[in-house]
Amino acid sequence: MRAFGLLGVVIALCAGLYLYQQNIEEIPEGNPQQQIDTVAIRQRLLTIAQTERQYQATNGKYATLEELAAADLLPGGTEQRGYSYSAEISATGFTITAAPTAADKAEWPTLAVDESMQVEER
Fold first, then answer.
1. What is the pTM of this model?
2. To 5 degrees, how large is the angle CA 29–CA 33–CA 37?
3. What does the pLDDT look like over 41-61, one tens digit per residue?
4. Smallest Cα–Cα separation from 48: which of 100, 102, 85, 99?
5. Edge-to-edge, what's the strand order for the sheet holding 83-89?
6. Which of 38, 57, 58, 105 could pair with 82 in a Cys bridge, judged by C-beta atoms 3.0 to 4.6 Å apart?
């Protein structure tokens, strides 16, 4: 009976270790500040993409970042944490790109999101 209990604990620990390793692989590379900023930029991109989807549902078209800012839907503007945001808009979709503009972030990744709501590194 004890052998089954011990076996259960070992299996649970192995499963936990496997899940931990999978999550570690998703953490962005770089120093802690880069990791923090990259996560913040990813979240900002998803927020802008969600705003685009809501704007499209209300107005029947996607908006430029300037249109979102004019409608008070883009708090914080088009620059944040040393990144600058730009948008490519079409009748059927959008791509929002965040590119590093600060000199100390020149080697950091460029991130982009589209209507699929998937953030990609470029």
1. 0.72
2. 85
3. 999 999 999 999 999 999 999
4. 85
5. 79-80, 83-89, 94-100, 111-114, 119-121
6. 105
